[in-house]
Amino acid sequence: MQISLHKLKQANDGLLLEHETIQFDLVGEVPELTDLGPVHVKARAELIDPDLFVVNAAIRAQAKFLCVKCLTEFRQVLEAALQEYFTDEPYRAVDSEEQEIHLVHENKLDLTPFVREALLLQFPSAPICRENCRGLCPVCGKNRNTDPCHCQVKSVDPRLAALENWHESDG
Predict the structure, then answer these.
(1) Lower CB density within 10 Å: C or N end of the chain?
(2) Three-state DSSP state, 133
(3) pTM
């Protein structure tokens, strides 16, 4: 997604609206991601000063993940907001704690890497199909969300396993 500084500076109100769809191939790069649909970006570029402008963007995409608990594929809508400052004057480009101003070369700004970064920050670190996912049975491997499982899962701390055979009458 590219924004022309020339068009922005020529706009009467110093405002430029752009809508674009971008396709990213992040399968294999993001764990548990099985598919990523088109990424829809609505960007608003606004001239603040003659050599400084801000871009605000709304990002939306639909992704398919594998649930880390039950291994079921599910869809999730990802949404992100983006706000970045840009300039075409090298003296204005700064990287401070308060605000980062990016330098634009050749009168065109490529928003694609900024959109990609904002989207990547929205991916869940451990995707779960639903809040109350019961996962897979550790004994038989059935999906406990869809299949009945009557396995007895006995959880004993291995450090206390020796006490399992001890009876009160012994001591």
Answers:
(1) C
(2) coil
(3) 0.78
Q: pLDDT 10s digit of each residue in the chain, 171 long?
A: 788 777 777 776 767 778 889 999 999 888 899 999 999 999 988 888 888 889 999 999 999 999 999 999 999 999 999 999 988 877 766 655 567 888 888 888 889 999 999 999 999 999 999 999 999 998 888 999 998 888 887 777 888 877 877 776 555
* Structural domain harbouring 125: 2-134
Q: Rounded to whole angstroms, how far apart are CA atoms 111 and 3?
A: 8
In a domain, 128, yes or no: yes
| Dihedral pair phi/psi, residue 160, rounded to 5° | -105, 5
Residue type, 145: N
> Per the structure, how many domains does the chain have?
1
Please indicate, yes or no, if residue 152 is contained in any of the structural domains.
no
